């Protein structure tokens, strides 16, 4: 196995340790493999993750920008590399941020919109002529705000959801297909409990004799089932602003309107909606700008929302605990996260790197 291949395998191991869905782990590995290939082209073969330096990452970013990569895709690349490096114990606090590089930010505005009742009825009518399983997936996505993967894998949860609704509980757990493997809880719309219960009962009756699968692929696995569902969606009026994600937009708009009509404070509406959609309770600004842009007039023009992103202060806290005699180089060496994460050392590390690390530790002692 070559040196660069060992580095890619090390990155794949770190990606598995970081967790997340199989797709997320695969994408991280592919992104690191592309970065490793770029580093080799400029004369640096990465045999381990922590051999990557900040200037290499910055050069790689500008290389992607020069290739006309879209801001959203570029953000995904940077996130993948950051997760792998953080899992490997590298200190990411000193790395260059996107704002410092003045990179173009991802623009999600105007991508999708909520469907009108007539558009939703027309979509169901078209799906009924195509595939009954697709009809049930569409109804569940619309009434529960599910992602496509969540709706595809929810068959074994339908009976539990039905029982909870009949018991008067409108919070339903989503344990299969959740993004990055994070279970979440959605909420049945207060004005559409009957429609939601009918959708769940119909889907349960359909998939009970099909091993609780709403869509079955040609290879009888999740990958082929997802490909078949996407193919069916392409045959329906589900493109551009009315793509499959528009069903989640419809759920979000209905949830926000009902909550505002009940007199709930706007900030609390956005916080709860963010939690119900699986984005966590701290993404209020994103929810307002993306999901609720059609009803923006119902929220105050100036609304104070908690910050979507809180900067990490791990390195500062670690540095405070270091002895006063430690130099700046010692602080960087000890503040790389190694004290709280056990990591298998990379094999055949460069002699120069080992010698430099040995000298720093020796001076510190």
Summarize the structure in words.
By secondary structure, this protein is mostly helical. It has 3 domains: 3-101; 117-298, Orthogonal Bundle (hpI Integrase, Chain A); 314-364, no CATH class. It has 17 helices and 2 strands. The protein has helices at 3-18, 22-41, 54-66, 71-87, 98-101, 117-128, 132-144, 148-152, 158-166, 193-207, 222-234, 246-261, 266-276, 284-291, 314-320, 328-334, 351-364; strands spanning 171-174, 184-187. A two-stranded antiparallel sheet has the order 1-2. Helix 13 (266-276) packs across helix 14 (284-291). The protein is globular. The protein starts with a helix and ends with a helix. Residues 308-365 have low confidence and may be disordered.
What attributes characterize this protein structure?
two-stranded antiparallel sheet, DNA binding, hpI Integrase, Chain A, globular, DNA recombination, mainly alpha, 2 strands, Integrase catalytic domain-containing protein, 365 residues, 3 domains, disordered C terminus, 17 helices
CATH topology of the largest domain: hpI Integrase, Chain A
Number of helices: 17
- Termini separation comes to 37 Å
Class per helix and strand makeup:
mainly alpha
Give the rounded overall mean pLDDT.
82
What order do the helices and strands come in, and which of them pair?
Elements: H1 3-18, H2 22-41, H3 54-66, H4 71-87, H5 98-101, H6 117-128, H7 132-144, H8 148-152, H9 158-166, E1 171-174, E2 184-187, H10 193-207, H11 222-234, H12 246-261, H13 266-276, H14 284-291, H15 314-320, H16 328-334, H17 351-364
Antiparallel strand pairs: 1-2
Helix pairs in contact: 1-2, 1-4, 2-4, 7-10, 7-12, 9-10, 12-13, 13-14
């Amino acid at each position: 196995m070559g040196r660069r291949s060992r580095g890619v395998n090390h990155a794949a191991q770190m990606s598995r340790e970081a967790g997340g869905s199989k797709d997320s782990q695969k994408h991280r590995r592919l992104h690191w493999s592309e970065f490793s290939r770029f580093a080799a082209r400029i004369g640096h073969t990465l045999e381990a993750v922590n051999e990557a330096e900040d200037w290499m990452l910055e050069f790689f970013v500008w290389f992607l920008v020069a290739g006309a990569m879209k801001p959203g895709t570029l953000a995904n690349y940077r996130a993948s590399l950051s997760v792998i490096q953080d899992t490997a114990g590298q200190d990411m606090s000193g790395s260059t941020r996107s704002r410092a590089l003045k990179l173009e930010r991802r623009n999600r505005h105007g991508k999708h919109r909520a469907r009108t009742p007539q558009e939703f009825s027309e979509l169901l009518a078209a799906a009924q002529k195509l595939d009954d399983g697709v009809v049930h997936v569409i109804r569940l996505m619309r009434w529960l705000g599910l992602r496509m993967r969540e709706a595809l894998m929810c068959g074994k949860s339908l009976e539990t959801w039905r029982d909870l609704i009949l018991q008067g509980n409108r919070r339903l757990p989503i344990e299969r297909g959740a993004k990055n493997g994070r279970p979440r809880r959605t909420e049945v719309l207060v004005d559409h409990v009957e429609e939601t219960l009918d959708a769940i009962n119909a889907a349960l009756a359909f998939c009970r004799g099909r091993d609780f699968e709403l869509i079955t692929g040609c290879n009888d696995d999740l990958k082929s089932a997802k490909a078949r569902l996407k193919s069916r969606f392409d045959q329906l009026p589900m493109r551009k602003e009315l793509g499959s994600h528009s069903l989640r937009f419809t759920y979000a708009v209905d949830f926000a309107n009902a909550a505002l009509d009940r007199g709930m404070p706007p900030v609390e509406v956005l916080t709860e909606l963010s939690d119900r959609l699986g984005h966590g309770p701290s993404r209020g600004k994103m929810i307002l700008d993306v999901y609720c842009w059609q009803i923006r007039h119902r929220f105050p023009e100036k609304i104070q929302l908690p910050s979507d992103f809180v900067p990490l202060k791990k390195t500062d806290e670690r540095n405070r605990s270091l002895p006063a005699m430690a130099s700046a180089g010692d602080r960087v060496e000890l503040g790389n996260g190694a004290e709280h994460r056990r990591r298998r050392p990379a094999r055949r590390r460069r002699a120069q790197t080992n010698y430099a690390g040995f000298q720093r530790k020796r001076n510190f002692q």
